[in-house]
Amino acid sequence: MSYLDNGLIRVGVDLSKGGAITYLAKTEGPNLVNSFDLGRQIQMSYYSGPVPFSPRGKQPQPFWAGLGWNPIQTGDSFGHPSKTLNIKNDGKQIYLKCIPMQWPLDNEPGECTFEAWITLRGATVEVKNRIANRRSDLMQYPAREQELPAVYTNAPWYHLVTYTGGHPYCGDPLTTIPQHPWGKDGPWTSFQATEHWAAMMDDKGSGLGVWAPETTAISGGFAGKPGVGGSTDSPTGYIAPNLSEILDSNIIYDSRYVLILGDLATIRRYAVDHRSKNSAPTYRFRANRQHWTYVNADDAGWPIRNELKVRLERPDPQLVGPSGFWRASEGPILRIEDPTVTRASRGPRDPRSGSRRRARSSTSTANTAPRL
Question: How far apart are CA 167 and CA 186, in angstroms?
């Protein structure tokens, strides 16, 4: 184990499990993190194709075959832990690097590395995560929903609370997400957390909040008997901020989140204090896709250099933006700059030569609020 402790909270990573966070508590308080198996903890978990993922003919565990390509930080479903490559702890920040394991497969390391930068600030843990792919399969697979990160709590923390209303940061009543029975996706439910956070709380009103500034889409829930159980017991709470992302064979993909220990007022106050000054979206594709994905389309791949080069040859191609929430009053004008060059065969015919000209669209401005 390697720990950081600032007198308020203590966080620990397990170097025998890829450096995943396995310990988080107020100083001298109980650990909130569940480690029943290698699929729990607080850890990175990413998804892509193919589904099923069968490298060199190796077959996934049938129960998990539908996950496809799924490297996770801690280890695989057969009990093989990930390998930690590097760890640095200067007392203020932990840096770590590991080779993850493919969760559905028996002892199959991922063709990628994971990195994390973990810093304490007051009663919070600030985390930056990175996956760097080096896949031999160069196919660009469709976007999949990522866990950014996967957070598992012990049994006493079983009340899932957030804000899902239309007036974020105004102090409106919070929402307790009801538990629902186990389904094909487990006992988890998905919701729009319009203040960018959700929390697992105990009966005394204390718990763990997860703040994810880049998404309002969060999934969570509780599995097992709530109330009694520690880190090695099966009952567990779950929170995962979600973004649908394309993970290219050579992508370097960063994400960040903050863990907040305290009561609901403390957790919510952090979200209010760190809200974006302008919630209206601005997408400029200078170095990445800005969380945009495609249906019946693909692009030129990674890295992204100043623009998206999207191929639209298939029927009904679609570009899909990330889920989000903003007030129409903060973005009354929708401006779309679309320097699209269509294929020559689709341009208008030039009567002088009989050939078809390339068509370039111009900038358009719509003086109406986006439809929500």
Answer: 30
